[in-house]
């Protein structure tokens, strides 16, 4: 199984930004964790991060016909990007939303997830573990359909 793991703006600043919310682990730590967990689940994961909305949309569209599922942490674009929502809907791949922090307990504007409207599962506030849970969800779904 091939997964595309997409990370949105400012996730490349993990370990530097708002340590009280995101902790001290770096983006490099996150990438290593994702690849390790994917291997343990018997899957291949491609990781993509961008601070630019159009780059994220382009990468989602490029997943059509090349990936079996998408794990996405749209970060700040969660609450603003209809373009990412539309791209996820267009490719019709199983998608799962992940957030490191518990956005449900943060500022009111963080309560809306446009991207999440195209996702069939959500793992929120679990830190890095949310990515493993998302990948395991997609692996189990694929197993159930085979």
Structure, explained:
This protein is α/β, with parallel strands linked by helices. It has a single domain (2-145), classed as Dehydroquinase, class II (Rossmann fold), CATH 3.40.50.9100. The chain has helices spanning 19-22, 27-40, 53-62, 82-91, 129-145; strands spanning 2-7, 44-49, 69-73, 95-99, 121-124. It has a 5-stranded parallel sheet with strand order 2-1-3-4-5, with helices on both faces. α3 packs parallel to α4. The model has no long low-confidence stretch (mean pLDDT 92).
H and E string: EHHEHEHEEH
Which structural class do the helices and strands define? alpha/beta
CATH architecture: 3-Layer(aba) Sandwich
The CATH homologous superfamily corresponds to Dehydroquinase, class II
How many helices? The count is 5
What is the CATH domain class? Alpha Beta
Please give the radius of gyration in angstroms.
Answer: 14 Å
Distance between the termini: 12 Å
CATH fold-level name: Rossmann fold
Q: Give helix % range.
A: 25-40%
Mean pLDDT, all residues:
92
Give the low-pLDDT segments. none
Global geometry: globular
Largest beta sheet: what is the strand line-up? 2-1-3-4-5
SS elements, strand count: 5
Strand residues, percent: 15-25%
The biggest beta sheet reads: 5 strands, parallel
How many structural domains? 1
């Amino acid at each position: 199984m091939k997964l595309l793991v997409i990370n949105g703006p400012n996730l490349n600043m993990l370990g530097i930004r708002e340590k009280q919310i995101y902790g001290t682990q770096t983006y490099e730590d996150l990438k290593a964790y994702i690849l390790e967990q994917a291997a343990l689940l018997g899957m291949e994961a491609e990781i993509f991060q961008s601070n630019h909305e159009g780059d994220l949309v382009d990468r989602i569209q490029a997943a059509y016909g090349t990936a079996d599922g998408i794990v996405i942490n749209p970060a700040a674009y969660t609450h603003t990007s209809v373009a990412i929502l539309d791209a996820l809907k267009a490719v019709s791949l199983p998608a799962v939303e992940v957030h490191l922090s518990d956005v449900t307990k943060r500022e009111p504007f963080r309560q809306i997830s446009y991207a999440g409207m195209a996702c069939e599962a959500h793992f929120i506030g679990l830190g890095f573990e949310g990515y493993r849970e998302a990948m395991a969800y997609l692996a189990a779904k694929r197993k159930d359909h085979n």
